[in-house]
Design brief:
210 residues, mainly alpha
């Protein structure tokens, strides 16, 4: 057994254990920290496959940005997790069936000849001057440009839907109408009101009247 193979098995065991702890722990903050560990071990697996760019992107994007956002949301919102767990066992058969179906689909995809996965093999060290970042960009924008653009559109639709679902308008808040601002002209910008000044009677007349 080589060092790379031993490191692969160690990272795989840690990754599976961390993923199981994510869905079994009761504390949401602890679950997020276990997910961070799962991301780090997944990045180690990418490093073993000589995909340094993907490993760095996984750490920076998911651990550095997404998980920080998750922790902020979990720690700032007062979420009643006990109420969310009610009825979880009732949906367990459906969730288990969906999980088994997804596992079978992944096995069929990875086992097909179109992906070129005939069995476990070591990728070997890349030649001198090889750039996995350049190769990844070439594949994304040549062979997989349409799936890449489709994924981008789906993510954009998800972002717009999330904003639309969480948008709340308050009646007491004053909003600006860009259409009214653009329709303004010099005639309605300034309004001159002519008013006669109030006349104050002289002090002598007030005294004579008394």
């Amino acid at each position: 057994m080589t060092i790379q193979l031993a490191a692969f098995y160690v990272c795989a065991v840690v990754l599976i254990g961390a993923a199981l702890r994510v869905i079994t722990t009761r504390n949401a903050v602890h679950a997020a920290l276990w997910l961070v560990l799962a991301f780090f071990t997944a990045a180690c697996l990418w490093l073993l496959l000589y995909a340094e760019f993907l490993a760095a992107a996984l750490v920076m994007v998911y651990v550095g940005a997404v998980m920080v956002l998750f922790l902020f949301v979990v720690m700032m919102l007062d979420i009643n997790f006990d109420k969310l767990r009610e009825g979880i066992w009732r949906h367990l058969p459906l969730a288990g069936g969906i999980g088994i179906l997804m596992a079978l689909e992944m096995a069929l995809v990875l086992g097909s000849r179109e992906f070129g996965v005939d069995g476990p093999r070591s990728p070997g060290a890349p030649p001198a001057g090889y750039s996995n970042t350049k190769e990844l960009g070439r594949l994304l924008y040549t062979d997989y440009v349409f799936p890449f653009e489709l994924a981008a559109v789906i993510l954009l639709v998800a972002i717009v839907a999330a904003i639309a679902l969480t948008l709340r308008r308050r009646k007491e808040t004053r909003y600006q109408d860009p259409a009214d601002q653009l329709a303004a002209n010099k005639a309605n910008r300034l309004k001159i009101v002519k008013d006669a000044p109030a006349r104050v009677p002289p002090a002598s007349q007030e005294g004579g009247g008394e």
